[in-house]
Fold these 3 entries.
Entry 1:
Amino acid sequence: MSNIVEQRVRRPILRLVNVQKTYRQGDRELHILDGASADLHEGEAVALVAPSGSGKTTLLQVAGLLDRADSGSVVLSGRDCAALGDRDRTRIRRTDIGFVYQFHHLLPEFDALENVVLPQLIAGTKRSEAMQRGTDLLAAFGLKERLTHRPAELSGGEQQRVAIARAVANAPMVLLADEPTGNLDPQTAERVFVQLLQFVRKAGLAALIATHNYDLAHRMDRVIRLENGKLIEQQFTQIKTQTA
């Protein structure tokens, strides 16, 4: 009961409030997000599930300030970011929001450590501090012996763990992940998922993780489903029934 009360009174780190997003396709209007609302709190991993093509990526892009909603609010740590200019949105993405994608998108000409150091340097961190944090992060993800290996020399799971370390290098408040284990075999996906979840809870991030893997979704703190442009909180048993 105390945990429920605590969640009710504490302020969310990320709030999506009545977010609307429509695309035009010829004469048709596609209402991708139609009043989508959700709260994410510190240290919790929230699974985002939905059929392919339903708008999960659009939702993550709007939440991460990569795309603008037609209306509604994206509130980060109490600040409504919807009306901010491009410069402020870029600054917030650089420091307060981390992104992980299905494909790692590592820079192939740089080694693992350099891939994690670069976003820190761009954010203004001193090189010595960036090197130390990068080393610590990669060690935390089990890559202490792979610091100087380039992406082509790493396995798929190792590459994705480097990508996660890069996403959290600037100590963001929010982590947005789009199918982060979707391109991995089951055993590797399990290892990457466990390490990601442990890090989210230890670092106190608010994480929204899109996944098609309902077993992984069940192990997160909450599950929300994107349906007809709205976000609906669901129990795992409901999800299994709807996807059977």
Note: Residues 4-9, 237-244 have pLDDT under 50 and may be disordered.
Entry 2:
Amino acid sequence: MDVKPPLTSCVIARDLDIGYQTQVVVPQVNFELTCGQSLALVGINGSGKTTLLKTIVGLLPPIKGEIIVLGNPPGKNPYQLAYLSQFHDAGFILPLRVRDVVQMGRFTDKGLFGRMTSQDEQIIASSMQRMGVEDLRDSPLRLLSGGQQQRVYMAQVLARRADLIVLDEPTSSLDAAGRELFSQILKEEQIRGAMLVVATHDIQLASECDQAMLLAHAVVAVGPGSEILTPEALLKTFGIVLLYQGEDKGVGIVEREHGHN
């Protein structure tokens, strides 16, 4: 696996208000993601996670404040960024095979009709192998299960070889084995030198990232997961309390808090 030299730029947000047109969803977002780091956005549906992701990749303009992505305004570095959204319609409109979908990850370098080199073919094959879908390469995407499709789309992201990988609920359709594989893949991509921003409900995944941001139409907390994933902060974010069990202090049982409005 190739390891890229570290980038000199990162993702920085200063006094950033995000939302749609003039409607602010989350005000005053401040964070800095340095090279090779990962950031988990944690919160319930509608808390602002997807809005922030779309702002980072340039699909939504900032309402107020400043955001710099890889040294430029969002959307100015399409060749360096890979974005996996929650919804994928193309596989049901077009008769795509698994390999076709993964190959799309190389289109930013080659264009829609560019000829694939042997290096491109190796990257495509490696990406399918890493996500465990190489045996499905000739299968129609629409006939696969939700978890298999998610693995295919993640293989497409890997084929991109991006400097910044932005993922929206990537483990939502995966079983336990798929989530474990995904966690390992994220670590490998960081070793390669990529920066990662992941929106998730998965507290365990968030705890494995370098930074976490808890969102509830406001930034509840941002910082190292070991410091901010506290019962008090999670109560503000989810309306739940996280109980730690055992000597390892790992993520344990999640229970709803009683007696709170």
Note: The chain is about 35% helix and 25% strand.
Entry 3:
Amino acid sequence: MPSRRLFAFIPAVVLLGCLRWTQPIGAEEPSAWKKHVINHRSPFEAVGVADIDRDGKPDVFCGDSWYAAPTWTRHRVRDVPPGTNPHYHEDFADAPLDVNGDGRTDIVTCAYFSRRIGWVEQPTDPAQPWTEHTIDLPGSMETAYLVDLYGDQTPVLVPNVGGQVLLYELASRSPAATWTTRRLAAEGAGHGIGHGDINRDGRLDLITPMGWYEQPANRSDEWTFHPEFNLGTASIGILGHDFDGDGDTDVVWGMGHDFGLHWLKQSTDAGGTRIWRKGEDIDTSFSQVHTLHLADFDGDGQMEFVTGKRIYAHPSEPGATAEPCLFIFRYDRSASKWERQIVHRGDPAPAAPLDPEQRDAQKDFRAGSAGTGLQMAIHDIDADGDLDIVAPGKSGLYWFENPRIPATP
């Protein structure tokens, strides 16, 4: 079946090497990934990668600025205020997309406190600030992402809106950018959203903490909700992928405000009814698992996923001051178990105040501490043929260079 990808997310690349996997989880070798600092003082939790200045190099957009590769010169292009809770800024998504079809990359964004979805237009004159356009005011949102949901290159924004399940389709680019809104039945709404082809019919379905929505064959028909599981306060995204290679789609998610990274294995009973069985816990050693991204990091044709600790998702939560981390997880199909590779592991916050309201990631964690925010970006930043990781968060903005260890002849 045709593959579908996140817009401006994973480019087509030729992967020429493989990474070294170690096991068991908790006994890994030190990370071979190289950390590069883009802005260690950036407090924003969203990120996108695209060629902003059209010079052929991938740049990074985060919060109020874009950073020009390869020197990461900062260009501040808009104001992003703190939310009514000063632990957060009003930038919960940064999805690159040429919204108005003028050949320049814009940014689709959302905000929690102002309850706003919008897009930020790149001007013709690079010396001018970017222009904000409101798409909708649906409610408080954890984050949002763009996906080719229908497989026809139509950009669809999938926000995680409290109490609602909404889709925003870019209907036209000119003479003015217009978006159409699709509202699904609210029974599946919760903290977390993702996608995958659950029933293997060639169409992407939506996955929520309460079950999954089946994409109809006719786009104008209703999406059928299947309340087949309850994941709790889940990550964004929730991953739908055949990890164990048995021919059906499994579900992987993290606990956004607690410890735990888990998966459900799909199968059928004797009568052919779909059933879900919780697999062994993938990892319960870190908390605040908010963002998961699926990609082939080692070039073996099998998908892995990267995730990590969202630094101060809530400063008062269990594990909030523990060491920040980024990990890649791979399912070893021959051994039927998960393997973990360390991308980055930092130190606990040595200076964190006992009062959570007084905590500040920029002060509490050592300089250079990297975890995740609400998004990461997966892209071949250095154009060497493998996929790198750009990780924003309250403790700074970093990119991690894939070590690209050559395969054994």
Note: The longest strand covers residues 259-268.
